């Protein structure tokens, strides 16, 4: 059994839903980005499915479509309520912008 602490996301009040949001979570290196890319290919002709970009405070790799920001920019955006949900893991900060809620409420998934 893993001894890793649980990750508890912070959800901005009123920032998500009603609607459907599907999240893929797992440990670093487990293949999440590979699964996301495969899903994007499989759903490329379905305008009702959206893959929001994560905001991250670490350097993005060629395998990720993340929006890289500094810790200072992340903290400012968080303080201004720009994120629907945000969390910290492994010394980095991650978030989805509030615009994801527009897609959810429009029944895009």
Strand adjacency order, main sheet: 1-4-5-2-3
Topology pattern, helix = H, strand = E = EHEEHEEH
In the residues, how many domains can be counted?
1
Helical percent range? 10-25%
Shape: globular
β-strand number: 5
Strand content: 15-25%
Topology, element by element:
Layout: E1 10-11, H1 32-42, E2 54-56, E3 67-68, H2 71-79, E4 83-89, E5 92-97, H3 100-105
How would you describe the overall organization of this protein?
A hairpin with a 2-residue loop joins β4 and β5. The protein has one domain (20-105): Guanylate Kinase phosphate binding domain (2-Layer Sandwich). The protein has 109 residues and is of the alpha+beta class. The radius of gyration is 14 Å and the shape is globular. It has 3 helices and 5 strands. 24% of the residues lie in helices and 18% in strands. A 5-stranded mixed β-sheet has the order 1-4-5-2-3, covered by helices on one side. The longest helix has 11 residues, at 32-42.
Compact description:
This protein is 24% helix and 18% strand. The protein is an alpha+beta fold and 109 residues long.
Defining traits:
18% strand; alpha+beta; 24% helix; globular; Guanylate Kinase phosphate binding domain; 109 residues
């Amino acid at each position: 059994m893993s001894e890793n602490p649980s990750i508890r996301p912070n959800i901005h009040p009123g920032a998500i839903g009603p609607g459907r949001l599907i999240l893929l979570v797992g440990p670093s290196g487990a293949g999440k980005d590979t699964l996301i890319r495969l899903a994007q290919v499989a759903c490329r002709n379905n305008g009702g499915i959206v893959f929001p970009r994560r905001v991250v405070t670490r350097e993005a790799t060629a395998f990720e479509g993340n929006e890289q920001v500094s810790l200072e920019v992340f903290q400012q955006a968080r303080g201004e309520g720009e994120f629907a949900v945000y969390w910290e893991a492994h010394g980095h900060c991650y978030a989805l912008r509030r615009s994801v809620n527009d897609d959810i409420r429009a029944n895009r998934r």
